[in-house]
Structure to design on (484 residues):
């Protein structure tokens, strides 16, 4: 049995008087894990809790053997928020250079990250003038700095063209092959097939957990989208 | 806290300002134009009105400008997600705040050097104390503006609101700082209020340098402004939360 990279126990998060995560528990192992569910189901809140940016009401979150948000984790996790969290008025190289200095990694690591996300030709361009897809890749490059042990990516492929999406998923697999755990959220169900393991989420709860094959087989559905619908309708009939 | 990260923040902020030519030009040119305008306005009047009002204006520029610039830029950091990202990295809250204070303090030093050079060299402002001390007052003043700007940005959710904090936080200080009515001639209540407003001491310091030039008095005022700036930075640090709702 592989040791879990992320261990969440009875995590409860309340936002604006509403229980967004109702005492959920889950574990994430190495490899590429997809966190799938419709918009507003609590994916981002869960990811924020993993990186220690979310106020939690109760429960425990352990990442790489440390409590989430502890100082020792701050150089070991790469985190991409849904918005491209980079400086629009700086160039690609300046952005990466700045975050590299904050993390205490050398400049060659910044050049490498720019190379990996395919922005070498744009490195001297101001981020604000790049396309939406390019900007989100700058944000991804920042998360790759210092080869983190865990990547937490909140909808990194949203709004990208199919070629770019394929390239990014290949990148996630390369990173996972290199030993990192990659947790990717998405509301697009057809991205499920690209993951080693899936966590299906709805209204703050994990409704399925397993490999794409296991989830399809357990419901007898042809694809993950139908499996998801099957499970949602099943729970509603039971309730 | 780490000097490496503090410098990284300061360097980044300065690069951002350098890239924004229009802002940079306004930061450096506008104070010089305004102080010239003040001098010109008083030119045909008897007495040394420019010597009376000039120092107050020199104290206000760095404070107002840095307050505005900082409250908008930090609000942008909060809303764009860059602050959240930085706080998941090994970024200390003080690194972030001091980085900003350092960058804007440096900008204020350049800004004030220009405004003082124009006032003293070109417009004949009479300074009895050492001229470099005017620069020290300006920098401490700018750090105060930066610290207050950081603090109020926590209470604004849009840039529009952030700009509205300027009349709310800055204008009362301008009215009560002793420039229009000497502080000891104000109604007792207003005098008491002006005694707890930081800008009053910045203006005191500038006026002391132009007037009696008792350096002990100047340093006392500088120390008070610095204490206010420090308090605002500490309060500002408390508004930077790694975990948000």
């Amino acid at each position: 049995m592989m040791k879990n990279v992320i261990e969440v126990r009875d995590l409860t998060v309340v936002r604006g008087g509403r229980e967004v995560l109702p005492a959920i528990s889950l574990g994430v192992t190495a490899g590429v894990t997809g966190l799938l569910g419709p918009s507003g189901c609590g994916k981002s809140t869960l990811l924020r809790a993993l990186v220690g940016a979310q106020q939690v009401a109760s429960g425990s979150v352990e990442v790489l053997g440390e409590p989430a948000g502890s100082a020792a984790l701050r150089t070991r996790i790469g985190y991409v928020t849904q918005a491209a969290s980079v400086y629009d008025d700086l160039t690609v190289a300046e952005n990466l250079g700045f975050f590299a200095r904050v993390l205490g990694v050398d400049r060659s690591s910044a050049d490498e990250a720019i190379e990996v996300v395919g922005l070498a030709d744009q490195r001297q361009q101001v981020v604000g003038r790049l396309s939406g897809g390019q900007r989100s890749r700058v944000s991804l490059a920042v998360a790759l700095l210092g080869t983190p042990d865990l990547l937490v990516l909140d909808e990194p492929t949203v709004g990208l063209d199919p070629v770019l999406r394929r390239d990014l998923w290949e990148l996630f697999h390369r990173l996972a092959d290199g030993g990192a755990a990659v947790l990717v959220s998405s509301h697009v169900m057809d991205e499920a097939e690209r993951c080693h393991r899936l966590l299906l989420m709805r209204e703050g709860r994990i409704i399925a957990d397993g490999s794409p094959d296991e989830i399809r087989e357990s419901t007898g559905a042809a694809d993950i989208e139908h499996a998801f619908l099957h499970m949602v309708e099943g729970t509603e009939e039971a309730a | 806290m780490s000097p490496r990260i503090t410098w990284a923040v300061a360097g980044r902020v300065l690069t951002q300002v350098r890239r924004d030519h229009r802002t940079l030009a306004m930061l450096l040119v506008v104070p010089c134009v305004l102080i010239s305008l003040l001098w010109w306005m008083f030119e045909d009047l008897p007495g040394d009105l420019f010597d009376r009002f000039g120092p107050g204006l020199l104290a206000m520029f760095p404070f107002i400008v840095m307050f505005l610039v900082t409250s908008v830029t930090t609000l942008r950091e909060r809303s764009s997600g860059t602050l959240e990202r930085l706080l998941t990295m090994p970024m200390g809250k003080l690194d972030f705040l001091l980085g900003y204070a350092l960058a804007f303090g440096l900008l204020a030093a350049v800004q004030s050097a220009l405004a003082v050079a124009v006032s003293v060299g070109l417009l004949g402002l009479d300074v009895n104390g050492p001229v470099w001390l005017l620069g020290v007052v300006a920098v401490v003043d700018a750090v105060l503006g930066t610290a207050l700007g950081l603090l109020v940005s926590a209470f604004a959710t849009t840039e529009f609101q952030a700009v509205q904090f300027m009349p709310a936080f800055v204008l009362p200080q301008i009215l009560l700082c002793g420039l229009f009515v000497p502080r000891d001639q104000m109604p007792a209540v207003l005098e008491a209020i002006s005694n707890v407003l930081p800008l009053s001491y910045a203006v005191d310091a500038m006026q002391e340098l132009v007037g009696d030039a008792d350096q002990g008095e100047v340093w006392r005022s500088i120390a008070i402004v610095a204490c206010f700036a420090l308090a605002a930075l500490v309060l500002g640090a408390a508004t930077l939360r790694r975990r948000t709702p």
